[in-house]
Amino acid sequence: MIDMSRLTWLLGEPVATGQLKANPEDFIVEEDLGFEPDGEGEHLLVRIRKNGCNTQFVAEQLARFAKVHPRDVSYAGLKDRHAVTEQWFCLHLPGKADPDLSQFDLEGCEVVRASRHRKKMRIGTLKGNAFTLVLRQISDIANVETRLEKITQQGVPNYFGTQRFGRGGNNLVQAKRWATNEARPKERAKRSFYLSASRSAMFNIVASQRLAEGTVRQPMLGDALQLSGRGSWFVANAEEFESLLPRVESGELLVTAPLPGDGPLGTLEDAEAFEQTCLSDQTDLLSLLKRERVEPARRAIMLQPLQMQWQRWDDVTLELKFWLPAGSYATSVVRELMNLDEADADITE
């Protein structure tokens, strides 16, 4: 089970306490695909604002309404049931007319717009998400605002949130049972969740240790570095190491941590030795990822929220807005601001 309270904070453990998501309207997510629908094609993109419905349920209801197989309805990512979220769904309708979406009647859902598109929308087909959060019952709002100023300049750790690990950390528990051959999950979706939880947990372990040692902006020889805003990375070799230091210091280049799989971690020399030490007690999960031939990847340790703005509503309430790239967690931003109940952090983004 992953214990988020043991992961290193960038700014030290917050002194303030507070509440996130006292009601669904306190957590608003607006999906940003990064492109506009083509206006033509055999796919229909439908943007829905929902409250009280999870993504898979809405997809199933759309399939039933449009009289298509559930596999013909896709989406870019899961959004939490207990929040107000806007996201796109993709209906494959080759040779079929658009359904009359004004007749789509599902409690908690509203069709915002719809347009044809040439390509199928798949998991991960989004640029990011815009968040509007209301933080309530803040015990030290001045301290939270001070931390917000620092986050605007320095960013936050790019941890995977507790929601990645399932309620009560169950995804990771089941992954460990699978790894030791105690129980193999039959459903493909569950296997995917358990493998994702495994590599996410190991990313958090390495990232936390880098933060603890203060080396997230001080590269090691052999580090895998990522250009800010890009997905590709390269290894810092001895010949160019000195020239890379100011680029890492400025945030142009980001130090990454591993999402392990069936293959090398991606680092070399000092950085590889460091990561192997961090993961030395994770042999069961590492063996599982290798056995299941999961493709290894890298993820930046630091995350820079964009378009950050906030305002006090009163002495204990603050509204916070920001944009994050796909795969990042709003709860990782809030974690640097104040301490929350574990239940408040159980949100899918």
What do you see in this structure?
The chain is an alpha+beta fold and 349 residues long. Helices cover 28% and strands 25% of the residues. It has helices at 55-66, 141-154, 170-179, 188-212, 241-250, 269-278, 283-291, 330-335, and strands spanning 19-20, 27-32, 43-51, 73-75, 84-92, 109-117, 128-136, 156-157, 224-227, 233-235, 253-259, 297-300, 302-303, 306-314, 317-325. Strands 1, 2, 3, 4, 5, 6, 7, 14 and 15 form a 9-stranded mixed sheet that branches. The chain is globular and about 60 Å long. Residues 345-349 have low confidence and may be disordered.
Strands, helices and their partners?
Blueprint (H helix, E strand, L loop, with lengths): L18 E2 L6 E6 L10 E9 L3 H12 L6 E3 L8 E9 L16 E9 L10 E9 L4 H14 L1 E2 L12 H10 L8 H25 L11 E4 L5 E3 L5 H10 L2 E7 L9 H10 L4 H9 L5 E4 L1 E2 L2 E9 L2 E9 L4 H6 L14
Parallel strand pairs: 2-5
Antiparallel strand pairs: 1-7, 2-7, 3-5, 3-6, 4-5, 7-15, 8-13, 9-10, 9-11, 11-12, 14-15
Helix pairs in contact: 3-4, 3-7
